[in-house]
Amino acid sequence: MKLYEVAMSPFAGRCRMVVYHKGLQDKVSFLPPFAPPGSPEWRALNPLGKLPALDTGSLVLGESEVIVDYIEDRFPERSIQPKSPEDRAIARLLARICDLYVFPALSPLFGQLKAGSRDQNVVDEAVAKVGQALDNLDHFLPGDSSPYAVANQMTSADCALVNTLFYVDRMLAVFGVTDVIARRAKLGRYWQEIQSEPSAKRVLAELAYGLDQFVKGGAFVSTSQVPADV
What is the pLDDT of residue 179? Predict the structure, then answer.
């Protein structure tokens, strides 16, 4: 299978984290997009026009949550789904909060990175909304599954949370807002502990490398281009 992706994408990172956890590196290749996302050439493969996209050999899937579910269904060993209905629901809820509340709250900040043209009102509103979304994560996070989010095991919630919290941490620091995750008791403890988990640690290093390369030169790099010692 081919996963078209870039290293700095939190949504591609979510998919890679599942691949690493399940040990599927010999079954899933990471490739850069062969055309700019959104271009007609790219939409011929993935009409959604986005990354990541998974080519399974028989179909092409977009949307990271769907790709994660597909990998879980196709390779159920080392499952990322908790056993109980309650824990499964919480894992899904945490991932949905990341997608529907945290990232939309962060999005306006990407247009405010240049200090000279920054609108402080936009920044303040976005930071407040991010804080509200983090409060929701902290509320629903069980807080007793160290180092994982739910059920004392790696789940789809961790794949979403790790990639989301990386960007919360990095983006808000640009605007002088620090320790925003640590201020939430359960979320802060989780973030501190999950970063040492092997698949999370690997994805976080790739995200950081990809983001740093983009900031330096404006270029997207695929995970296949990340040095082995990162």
Answer: 92
| Beta carbons of 149 and 189 less than 8 angstroms apart | no
* Contact criterion met (CB below 8 Å) for 1 and 218: no
- This prediction's pTM: 0.95
Q: Contact 207/8 with Cβ under 8 angstroms?
A: yes
- Nearest CA to 202 out of 221, 228, 179 is that of 228
Please give the structure tokens belonging to residue 95.
């991932």
Strand ranges in 56-212 using DSSP code E only, listed in sequence order: 60-62
pLDDT of 21 reads 98
Query: How does pLDDT run across 84-138, given as a tens digit for each residue?
Result: 999 999 999 999 999 999 999 999 999 998 888 999 999 999 999 999 999 999 9
Contact partners, residue 25, CB within 8 Å, separation at least 6: 19
Sorted by sequence, the CB contacts under 8 Å of residue 118 that are 6+ apart come out as: 112
Tokens representing 25 are 């590196």
Per-residue pLDDT tens for 104-117? 999 999 999 888 89
- The separation between CA 105 and the C-alpha centre of its own chain, rounded to angstroms, equals 15
Distances (CA, A) of 77 to 17, 19, 73, 197, 211: 15, 11, 9, 18, 32
Apex 52 CA angle, 27 and 96, nearest 5: 105
Reported as a pLDDT band with limits 50, 70 and 90, residue 144 is: confident
Angle (CA) 171-140-145 rounded to 5° is: 95
Tokens of 83: 């056993």
* SS3 category, 5: coil
